């Protein structure tokens, strides 16, 4: 096993999943194989977890996670759809923007390689028995050709999530690994991030 040397933030909806602590332990093991030290959001929240549920506790979590991101060398981002919707966890989306802003390299991963357009169509069909339709021509710039039953543009054609998500990961030098197996997708992303961090350390 390679010696862990680069701390990397493990972002995504993982904190909300069943058996989250066990999941993070598995991912930390995969990180260690690549010379990374996986840092879970929980790792900075010991003091906040002792507080009663409520607004101040949540904000303590947020501050703790920001500190972890500040201190990490990079981040591995899960962009899986969240709560059966087409879109990923919104908190993680905020973290992607923050990480790019402070200059951290990122790699993404997902088990759902469908296009964002397909995900939106499936959501409307399965949840509301609705369907997408061609959007009437309008004078606004467009990143898609269809709209949902609410008249909202189905944007980001050719991407798996909102263009800001994949765009910001790409601006940091990263890509999104896709595999039906969650741990395989994660491992691909971890390997790429480890290589980039190693190259950066030697530059």
From TrEMBL:
<dbReference type="Pfam" id="PF05014">
    <property type="entry name" value="Nuc_deoxyrib_tr"/>
</dbReference>
<dbReference type="GO" id="GO:0070694">
    <property type="term" value="F:5-hydroxymethyl-dUMP N-hydrolase activity"/>
</dbReference>
<dbReference type="GO" id="GO:0009159">
    <property type="term" value="P:deoxyribonucleoside monophosphate catabolic process"/>
</dbReference>
<dbReference type="InterPro" id="IPR051239">
    <property type="entry name" value="2'-dNMP_N-hydrolase"/>
</dbReference>
<protein>
    <submittedName>
        <fullName>Nucleoside 2-deoxyribosyltransferase</fullName>
    </submittedName>
</protein>
<dbReference type="InterPro" id="IPR007710">
    <property type="entry name" value="Nucleoside_deoxyribTrfase"/>
</dbReference>
